Amino acid sequence: MPTPHVQSLHVYPVKALAGSGPGEAVVEPWGLAGDRRWLVVDAEGRQITQRQQRRLALARAEELPGGTLRLTAPGMPPLVVQVPEPTGTAPVEIFGNVVEAVPASLEAAVWWRGFLGVESRLMHMDAPERRRPVDPRYGRPGDTVGFADGYPLLLTTSASLDALNSLIAQGDHADEGPLPMNRFRPNVVIEGTAPWAEDDWRRVRIGGVEFQVAKPSGRCVVTTTDQRTAERGKEPLRTLARHRRFGDQLVFGQNLIPRGAGTLRVGDPFEILG
């Protein structure tokens, strides 16, 4: 078995859209730099993710120098969106939390309405005072997150995906496998560990940065969405329900909270601290 190390890094500038796989990424207290700092919302300011609009899987966001965003999607002209001035905020509802964010240009709203077919806006969050608190049961006072589901980073392992795909191959929907890692939309993928070893981790070091392992990641219908076609199936939720049920959650991966700063790089060593 190879020495545990970072196999890949992933950053998603707009929540629920396809992102990028950079060779390195800066760790900020609330996640990787540039990760999920933008969110699409409906006319009432409620989050729109692949849970509500699976077509979001077909759109891609690329962060350009200075934080500028380039959006692409089937049937739509590419659009470059400037980071809005941090004035004129509006409330955004995400997973029951209401936070303030800054609307992007009217041109961006028109672009999203054209792609999704519903009134929608693109919102930006960057100011520290606007970030959401992490669930206090799993973090410390002052721990925050942007537009990610609940925690700054999500870690998965290639060995656990291999194990899951083996289970899928034995099930009723074997034709849906093997599944790629992009179904789980991680930030960090680790290679060289045993399958499901992450269940027992409490503290880890990636490169020179330490992280608290906050809690397992409960999975939803997004994982059943093919990220290339936006079509949905039964897996992996059918197999996770049989083999990876923790209480009322179907689990794959671990949520992380940074306990230091630095830069992560593909190939960085991975160490279990506790």
UniProtKB/TrEMBL annotation:
Residues 126-273 form the MOSC domain. Pfam families: MOSC, MOSC_N. PROSITE patterns: MOSC. It comes from the Bacteria. This is MOSC domain-containing protein. It comes from Streptomyces yunnanensis.
